Amino acid sequence: MAVVLALVVGGDLWTRFVPVDLLTPPALREHPLAGYEEAARPLGAPAPPTMSSGSYTFNYAGVGDRPFVAFSPCRPVHYVVNNRHQPPGGGQLVSDAVSRISKATGLRFVADGTTSERASADREPYQPERYGDRWAPVLIDWVTTAEEPVFALAEAHGGTTRLGDARALPVSREGSADVLVTGQVRLNATALGARLRDPGGAAAVRATIQHELGHIVGLGHTSDASQLMAATSTGQTEFGAGDLVGLAALGTGPCAPRI
C-alpha cells in the first residue's frame, strides 16, 4: 500500500507514491521495513556435498519446483544467546555449531551477542523495542529442567532425555513465497552441562546444538539413524551425507527483498 504526496513547485504539481510503512513508526508496525540487509545476490554458497543421499526431510513444504522453505541467502542470519544457564565452554560450542551450519548451507550468520530474552511459545518475530527495525534474531536459550519440566519428564520415567528443541518461523508478505526470518532454540542446560563433564562430551553437546540449528534453517527429522538429524541420537557427532545434501539445498533459497 502507498500514499500520494503532492507538492506544488513553481506552479507545477509534483506527485510521489510513498509506501505507508515508511511513514509508520516501527512501534506501530507489525513487521520491519522490507529488504533489511538484503543484497542483490547470495552472500555465500553451500559446500558441495561429497556424497549423494536422500536421507533428509524438510520442515516446511515449499511451492512449485522448490520443495522447501528457507532463509534468504541474500541477507545474514542474526542470532543471540541467552547464556544465564550456559555451562562452561557452551559459548564456544554454539559458535562451532553455527560455523558448521554456515559452511553446509552457505548462509552467513552474525552473532549479535547475549540477550535477556527467554524462549516462549508466543515469541514475537518483530521486536523493535529490543532489536530495532528488523526481524528479531534467532534466539538460542539455555534452559534448566527446573524452568522447563518437559526436559526432565522423559528421563524421570525411564525414557530418552530431551536435550533441546527448536522452531523456525516462516512468513510471507503481499503474496510472496514463504521465507524463514527467525526462530528459537532451547537447550537443556541441565543435561548438556552434565554431558560436558563426560569423555567426548563437548562433541556430543556441539552435535546437539547442530541438530537444533538444522531445524532452524529448515531441516526436519529423518528415519535414517546414521544422520545427525535423526529424531534420536545414537552417538553421531557430525552431519551425515543426507544431512549435508539437505542443508546444501536449504542454502539455495530465493532472495527475499519483499520480506
UniProtKB/TrEMBL annotation:
Protein name: Peptidase
Protein's organism: Arthrobacter mobilis
GO molecular function, one term: metallopeptidase activity
Alphabetical list of SUPFAM superfamilies matching this protein: Metalloproteases ('zincins'), catalytic domain
Superkingdom of this protein's organism: Bacteria
